[in-house]
């Protein structure tokens, strides 16, 4: 008998809707965060986001840490480091370049994991399509800060590492325990970086409230939606829906921040989205599916 009653398993339509809500929440949260950069640095805001989500996850999971062996801790420490650096690099990136472009470049990370995991020659076509998208982004070089692009690439590499480490963490830590501990690790890792910021995010209650709101939009809401949706959706279906992230990020940048993209940049985003959908549909399902982190 299943441990989850049928009444708690959403319909397929509801599950798809939950994933879309999660995607919209992540990208709207990122857009909202960008409007706050005049008041708090990207480093301070990403710390507040991670701290607020870590507190919620720790309260919900109450992870069991006693009796853990050395490998358990090495895995969760790596998981937390990838989570922290990914978010820090991503916020540094979209503080310099449009959100849609930052997410598009960052998405090369999970796309690479999907393609390399399939080991099929035909999937090289998806790599080529994604590469074409990146080249098209470079065609509008006047709009792209090289440092912002570099940070997006770092975030993409950390996203790939996060995906690879998530399955190991899921096998060694029960339920949300691993994610909760990893989130705490990410916060501790980034705490020393606050010393280099011009504004202390802890000194202003208003900024604290904004940071908590960003954490809710970018972490708590999407992860909760995805956790429920994955009870119904197959890994491939979930991956295809998550491939909409770059387009959703571009729309959030347009609607929330007013970031206008050139036609070539929209075409580039389309190339990466199609490449991600194609790679996801042709890749074999993973041994154990866990929700990837929201981008942004």
Describe this structure in words.
- With 296 residues, the protein is mostly helical.
- Mean pLDDT is 79; it is low at 1-5 and 286-292.
- It has helices spanning 12-34, 42-61, 70-94, 99-106, 108-118, 124-138, 146-172, 177-190, 205-229, 235-242, 245-257, 263-282.
- It has one domain.
- The longest helix has 27 residues, at 146-172.
- It starts with 11 loop residues before the first helix and ends in a 14-residue tail after the last helix.
pLDDT averaged over residues = 79
Largest β-sheet summary = none
Shape assignment: globular
Please give the alpha-carbon distance between the first and last residues: 38 Å
Structural class: mainly alpha
> What share of residues are in beta strands?
under 5%
Radius of gyration: 18 Å
The SSE order reads HHHHHHHHHHHH
Distinct helical segment count: 12
Name the helicity range.
over 70%
Low-confidence stretches: 1-5, 286-292
């Amino acid at each position: 008998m299943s441990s989850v009653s049928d009444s708690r398993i959403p319909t397929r339509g509801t599950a798809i809707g939950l994933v879309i809500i999660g995607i919209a929440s992540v990208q709207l949260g990122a857009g909202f965060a960008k409007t706050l950069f005049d008041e708090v640095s990207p480093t301070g805001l990403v710390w507040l986001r991670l701290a607020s989500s870590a507190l919620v996850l720790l309260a919900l999971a109450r992870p069991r840490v006693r009796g853990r062996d050395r490998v358990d801790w090495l895995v969760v420490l790596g998981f937390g480091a990838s989570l922290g650096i990914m978010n820090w690099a991503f916020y540094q990136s979209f503080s310099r370049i449009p959100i849609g472009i930052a997410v598009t470049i960052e998405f090369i990370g999970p796309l690479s994991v999907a393609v390399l995991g399939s080991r099929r020659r035909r999937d090289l076509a998806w790599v080529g399509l994604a590469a074409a998208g990146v080249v098209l982004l470079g065609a509008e070089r006047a709009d792209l800060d090289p440092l912002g692009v570099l940070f997006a690439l770092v975030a993409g590499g950390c996203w790939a590492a996060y995906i690879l480490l998530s399955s190991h963490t899921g096998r060694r830590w029960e339920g949300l325990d691993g994610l909760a501990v990893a989130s705490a690790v990410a916060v501790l890792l980034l705490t020393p970086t606050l010393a280099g910021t011009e504004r202390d995010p802890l000194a202003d209650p208003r900024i604290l409230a904004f940071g908590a709101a960003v954490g809710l939009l970018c972490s708590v809401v999407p992860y909760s939606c995805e956790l429920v949706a994955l009870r119904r959706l197959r890994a491939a279906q979930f991956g295809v829906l998550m491939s909409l992230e770059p387009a959703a990020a571009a729309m959030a940048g347009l609607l929330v921040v007013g970031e206008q993209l050139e036609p070539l940049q929209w075409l580039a985003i389309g190339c990466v989205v199609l490449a991600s959908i194609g790679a996801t549909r042709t890749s074999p399902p993973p041994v154990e599916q866990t929700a990837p982190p929201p981008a942004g």
